[in-house]
Design brief:
The complex is a heterodimer of chains A (about 425) and B (about 120).
Chain A (H helix, E strand, L loop, with lengths): L1 H5 L3 E7 L3 H12 L5 E4 L15 E3 L8 E2 H14 L3 E3 L3 E6 L2 E6 L3 E12 L3 E3 L2 H4 L9 E3 H9 L8 E5 L3 H12 L3 E6 L9 H8 L6 E2 L2 E7 L6 E6 L13 E4 L2 E4 L3 E3 L2 H5 L24 E3 L10 H20 L9 E7 L1 E5 L2 E2 L5 E7 L3 E10 L2 E11 L5 E5 L1 H4 L5 E5 L1
Parallel strand pairs in A: 1-2, 1-8, 2-5, 8-19, 10-17, 11-12, 11-17, 12-13, 20-27
Antiparallel strand pairs in A: 3-4, 6-7, 7-8, 9-18, 14-15, 15-16, 20-22, 21-23, 23-26, 24-25, 24-27
Helix pairs in contact in A: 2-3, 2-9, 5-6, 6-7
Chain B lengths: L1 E5 L8 E7 L4 E6 L4 H12 L2 E2 L2 E7 L5 E6 L3 E2 L3 H9 L2 E3 L7 E3 L9 E3 L5
Parallel strand pairs in B: 5-8
Antiparallel strand pairs in B: 1-2, 2-3, 4-7, 5-6, 6-10, 9-10
The chains are: A alpha/beta (about 425), B alpha+beta (about 120).
Chain lengths: ~425, ~120
């Protein structure tokens, strides 16, 4: 049939991004019955950020063994290839239109591909110096932790010898260890909050193992140096206002400052195509099928909300891929009236933000502040449907709870509360 | 002696209290772990701490300048820097597949140094 040739840019599911979320979504889509699946990836290889995350700690939950990032990625790259998923590398998606993407690469030039479903899996990017407004000059030697990680782990370029790290996010702590192993001296990890932003295990194995000082309730108030960083000034902050306290300044002589100050979901494409974004997560608002307000557009992974574990991204993205395949086939459960999820007490946000009440759901949520010996309550309407004591809760570690469809029948909201 | 150990096996970060004599390698009591992995971790950590070492090695015959490597099992913590010195000396030629053994019995630890990435 001539149609076949003409239709070679028609897909069941198109996935934007070939990192851990996009790869798992592709696997999920094929498993869910999609015949033609396309991944469009900006980088020259699949795997996304995992390629530069050469440290161990991935896969404990999903595979039950401890893998490095490249190993974890290869398990999914192998599956994607085996399942016949098509992919375009070195490809920048410029726009998402009505059931289609417009992209550009050096083989196809400018092209349009049509998909019955589209999955957003663009991931996130790092907050930069501009985003946190650190005063001082603008010398060489100021990097985001992830940029330094790529330079050192993939491009064979060492970024400095004496280092201060601002922010105790996981990437910052992991880079503190990595740079120490590569012969640099890490003088301090400076954190404005009174707790570490990243996982406890990283504080132990990346900082305490190597005797790297962690300065909580401190921040960098000045960067010194003209051509190259010559030092940074660190001051204590008032724990309540986060304002630097005069007279507490100390100068660290260093040639490098790494920033590990949080991640922002990368949603330019989503916003331009009319996907509604959450003001709290900066990612698309979704239901339990990871379906956005545009019903053929799905989203998964760090583009939705920043995860601490790739295993959670994988689990969420497998589900997303399956749902996108179901949507393409016209079999995804629907309902006219979705109900909202509402965070209460010490819960900062819940993802998904909306629920289709006639289908089971897994709710992911994060605490607003660290706490010990708290109670988690889940309410469907006014009924308490779940309660559990938690020994501790930490904003750096995502929590989850499952809600059954039966519990949601006839209620107007599902609330998650930590008190 | 008593030692509080934060388990790093998974993100839960259980605080495990161990009583015993690390010199003699004896453990009298161990509590606070929520799983069996925690038990193994805390025992090792109390008597002889071990870590997986990961880094990268230089490549030949491919576009990527580096390839990720790891020890196949955790090695004694005090050997991490010696391990880095060994890894610096290694150059690998493409192709290498993930899991290929690069150095057997790395530093006499019984663990192998293996490819964590791949090059073509």
């Amino acid at each position: 049939m001539g149609d076949r040739l003409m239709n070679n840019n028609m897909y069941d599911v198109i996935i934007v991004g070939g990192g851990p979320a996009g790869l798992a979504a592709a696997v999920g889509a094929v498993d869910g019955g999609a015949k033609r699946v396309l991944i469009a990836e900006r980088d020259i290889s699949l795997g996304g950020i995992l390629e530069q995350c050469i440290h161990p700690g991935f896969g404990l939950k999903h595979f039950g063994e401890e893998l490095t990032g490249p190993e974890y990625a290869r398990r999914f790259i192998a599956q994607v290839k085996e399942k016949g998923v098509e992919f375009k590398l070195g490809t920048m998606v410029l726009e998402i239109g009505d059931h289609c993407i417009t992209g550009v690469n050096s083989t196809d030039g400018l092209f349009t591909a049509y998909g019955k479903s589209i999955v957003l899996a663009m991931g996130c990017r790092e907050r930069t110096r501009g985003a946190i407004m650190t005063p001082g000059t603008r010398p060489a030697g100021v990097y985001t932790a992830g940029a330094a990680q790529r330079l050192i782990n993939r491009q064979n370029t060492m970024v400095g010898k004496k280092v201060v790290i601002l922010g105790s996010g996981d990437i910052g702590m992991i880079m503190a260890r990595r740079m120490t192993l590569e012969g640099a001296k890490v003088l301090a990890v400076v954190e404005i909050m009174d707790y570490t932003a990243g996982l406890t295990r990283n504080r132990v194995q990346c900082l305490e193992d190597f005797g790297i000082p962690l300065m909580l309730s401190h921040t960098v108030v000045q960067i010194k140096g003209n051509r190259r960083v010559e030092g940074v000034v660190v001051a204590a902050v008032d724990p309540a206002t986060k304002k630097p306290i005069a007279g507490t300044e100390q100068t660290f002589e260093c040639d490098t400052l790494l920033l590990s100050c949080g991640l922002i979901p990368e949603n330019e494409l989503s916003r331009e195509c009319g996907v509604a974004l959450s003001r709290i997560t900066s990612g698309p608002e979704v239901n339990q099928f990871m379906q956005t307000n545009k019903e053929y557009v799905f989203a998964c992974g760090n583009v939705v909300h920043v995860n601490d574990l790739v295993d959670n991204v994988t689990e969420e993205s497998l589900r997303t891929g399956r749902a996108a395949a179901q949507y393409a086939a016209g079999t995804l459960p629907k309902c006219d009236k979705e109900i909202p999820t509402v965070p209460q007490g010490n819960v900062r946000y819940i993802c998904p933000q909306r629920l289709v009440p006639n289908a089971d759901a897994r709710l992911f949520f994060r605490a607003a502040s660290p706490a010990k010996n708290v109670t988690l309550n889940v309410y469907a309407g006014e009924n308490k449907i779940y309660t559990k004591k938690l020994i501790r809760i930490n904003p750096g570690e995502m929590e989850s709870v499952d809600v059954k469809a039966e519990a949601m029948a006839g209620v107007d909201s599902v609330r998650v509360e930590v008190i | 002696m008593e030692k509080k150990i934060i388990c790093i096996t998974c993100p839960k970060g259980c605080v495990i209290t161990v009583n015993g004599d690390p010199e003699k390698g004896t453990i009298d009591s161990l509590e606070g772990n929520e799983c069996r992995r925690g038990d193994t971790y805390a025992r090792n950590e109390f008597i002889h701490p071990v870590r997986i070492l990961t880094s990268s090695v230089k490549t030949e015959g491919c576009a990527a300048p580096l390839m990720a490597v790891r020890t196949s099992a955790p090695i004694p913590k005090e050997l991490l820097f010696a391990g880095m010195e060994e890894i610096k000396k290694i150059t690998v030629k493409a192709p290498v597949a993930v899991g290929d053994v690069l150095v057997e019995n790395f530093l006499g630890t019984g663990a192998n140094l293996v490819a964590a990435g791949s090059i073509e």
